[in-house]
Amino acid sequence: MASIEAAEKWESGAVLAHVQRILATPEFTGSPQLAAFLNYIVKRKLAGDTEGIKAYSIATEALGRPPDFDPQNDPIVRVQAGRLRQALLIYYANPQADDSMRISLPVGSYIPDIVPGAVAPVIAQPAQPREPPKAWKRTPWPMAIAGLVFLTIAGLGTLFAFNQGWLGRQADPNPLGMPALSIYIASERQIPSWFSPQLFESSLAANLSRFDEFAIIQSSAEKQTDGSAFRLDLEFVGIPNAVIMTSRLVRQPSREIVWSNRSTIPEDAIGSYELLDANRKLASALGQPYGALYSELLRDPAKTPTQRCLLGGYEYFQDPRPDTAPGIAQCLERIVADQPGNYIAHILLGYMYAEQYRAGRGGAGLIGNVVKAAQRAVALKPDSAGSQQILMEANLLRGLYAEALQAGALAVQLNPNDSDVLADYGCALIYRGRYSEGETYAARAPSSTSCRRPGICSACSSPPTTAAAPKPPMPSPAA
What we know:
This protein is of the alpha/beta class. It has 20 helices and 7 strands. It has a 5-stranded mixed beta sheet, covered by helices on one side. Strands 1-2 form a two-stranded antiparallel sheet.
């Protein structure tokens, strides 16, 4: 008999109202699948039907998968469950969150827990759980929630007008075929009370999930590390007024160390679990194109034809030779025809069209191709920083500067760890005459791990010397 524990403890109307407040935040307004997932499992539990909350029912009834869905071959439910755990963690970390109750998704289950607000959600399973430090709760995140919701609506306005046929289509969960990553706290010694390794681990997974290339991130708390191709081992050692963190990227099952890094986290740097400088830098070093995992995929001799084409698109912006552009554009066109849910292919193809147009290798019709690629990318993945970035590019080409800057601002908020997103938005601001604001973003980009095209950050690090009409923005690589 299905459990009716939630219905006994909570009035369903209050729970559903709480869920609606959660769904109104940026983590959910930009991700319809996350919203549908949470809505579905909460309503099923309130109805007393916990036995029916299975991967198959979630996939077919909430996520739009067909009746022949096979959870063994399609990881969509597990992937979205991991994202949902992180999104709920982020929601309750916000001081303005409704803390009358807490909804969490226990590891290893799709049945939600609904507990009184005074009980913190379980983030990890340490031997001796310590209360998250108060300093980490004083976070400005999510920044400008109302503004982000407005930007989401504004950025999608053109999409709704021209691309109704693409709304509701399913985005590929791992379009680049990036190998799965698990995160594991290998050791922790002499940890001071102001620092939580478990919270750092969880927020690192959240930061990594902002990158389009990461569709599958397995936290060590999910007990699924054996199935991942790579594992990130984290070691924390407390010293006076700081914590030393050593991170090692390990190939499994050979245990070969392919990348390592050491950094110091000072006590006075603690302001927010998500905005910790060390956390963001580590996510950027691992996750963005030309980062550690991207490099491993680039060196893999067993790449699929789709991976070779997509990687060729990324590499083009490191070495933009005109003779290679037509071949890359053609293989990307084949991918979007055969795999319409591959939103990264749509993003890259949009940038290739923009590059051809700016180089004079095609007429004004190419602008329409850029717009179509951008609209389809946003329709497939509205919470992708890359989708919003190509929408900014498309609007710039059409002279819709206000709409372009709205999309760029949203891209930055969706992934403030991506140096290319920062540089591209900073350039757009500078070329529209908003020099000081644009310099702020452009200057932040070179301090990140890398920019996707040499020179784009430094080229926009200072404003033009003349007050003449703004130049058209520089072509930018895909996110």
